[in-house]
Amino acid sequence: MLRSEPTPDPAALADYQRVLDRVFERSRELIESAPTWQAGLYRAVLACYTEMRSNPQALHLHFIATMRDARVLQTRVRHRDRLLALLARTRDDAPDSLHGEFLLNMIHASMRTQIKAGATPPDLDAAEQTFATILWRGAPLAR
Amino acid sequence: MSSGIVPRVPEETSAVGRPGRKRRPAAPHDVQLPSGRHGLSPRFVADNQRDRIVEALVDVVFSLGYPAASVERVSARAGVSRRTFYEQFDGKEDAFVRTCDDAAARLYARVDAARATGTTASEQLHAGLAALLDGLARKPRVAHMCVVGILSAGPAAIERRDAHNAGFARLLEEIARGQGGAPLPPLTAEGIVGAVHDVVYKRIAAGETSTLPALLDDLHGFCTLLFGQATDPRRA
């Protein structure tokens, strides 16, 4: 019989939101100072994953529970959307919002697959490779 | 006791009011069978009852959410007794999972048939994505139940959703290999399916299911960028 995963309690959700808020604040500077939008997103998702790796509960919510719990999913989606809005606000070369959404979704899905498959989350080198592959292969060469 | 027969996903014909409306859900008498002696075969009667239960479940989950979709409420909406419900399904979770399984199987068959009309991998991707987005938009209540409502339906439902997504990822791999191209790089198919799923989820949750077909060309373009090197043998 399948076991139901416990619903995240409000304190865990609040901690998760705080982690995302820290990531978002850091992303402002990273996206603004990057040479291209791809580089900006790359730095932002790397900062996010680095933060998540140091906080296993947030990592679990961000990559695993998000596919099982509507509140966690909504929290993550709000964070993704504000990151994309920040990108659009701060960079003239930003991709259109659907393209950015698709790339961030794909990065998330790829990382989720790796996290579910392994005993430990991928290290930063493996994660960097995933981010770079998707952001540069999945982006037009010129805009 | 479960009959073991796969339920038929209903057409989008009826709807219970959205939350907040004071409309009382009525049993779909137009599809209810006559009472007493009617000469209909037991199989026909059972199929009709099952279809009504599935339609009622989709309605109630869409309008009130999965937690509120009790067997009693769904049975009343379907115009069947609780006993009849349990003759068809093991419980509400079973009814939910089997309804989503059926919807996913139909959607997969639609996508697979559509992609077979394309010659190149790009054409197959385009045709398959078109069938997917159109199929979801045609049945918004079923799409809502199987993409959004499923998050409340328990671990069995989540596991089935993940299995359906894995099936679509395998189909993407097949499209890439079918044209003599190299296999997709690791995680590409899972990543694309996950990305499309999240794009679709956002629109369905926002009540924008009808807008999904308009995303076709953009989504096809993004997928092609990620797919390209693996599907063109000259570049592999």
What does this structure look like?
The complex is a heterodimer of chains A (143) and B (236). Chain A has 143 residues and is mainly α. Chain A has one domain. Chain A contains six helices and no strands. Chain A has helices at 10-33, 37-53, 56-63, 70-90, 97-117, 124-137. In chain A, helix 1 (10-33) runs antiparallel to helix 2 and helix 1 packs parallel to helix 4 (70-90). The mean pLDDT of chain A is 91. Helices cover 62% and strands 0% of the residues of chain B. In chain B, helix 1 (42-64) packs across helix 6 (140-148) and helix 6 crosses helix 8. Chain B has helices spanning 42-64, 71-78, 82-88, 92-115, 121-138, 140-148, 155-178, 188-205, 216-231. Mean pLDDT of chain B is 85; it is low at 13-25 and 230-236. Chain B has 236 residues and is mostly helical. Chain B is built from nine helices and no strands. The A-B interface holds A 2-5, 67-70, 73, 77, 96, 98-99, 101-103, 105-110, 112-114, 130, 133-134, 137-140 and B 148, 151-152, 154-156, 158-159, 162, 185, 187, 190-199, 201-202, 215, 218-219, 222, 225-226, 229.
Give the SSE map.
The complex is a heterodimer of chains A (143) and B (236).
Chain A: H1 10-33, H2 37-53, H3 56-63, H4 70-90, H5 97-117, H6 124-137
Helix pairs in contact in A: 1-2, 1-3, 1-4, 2-6, 4-5, 5-6
Chain B: H1 42-64, H2 71-78, H3 82-88, H4 92-115, H5 121-138, H6 140-148, H7 155-178, H8 188-205, H9 216-231
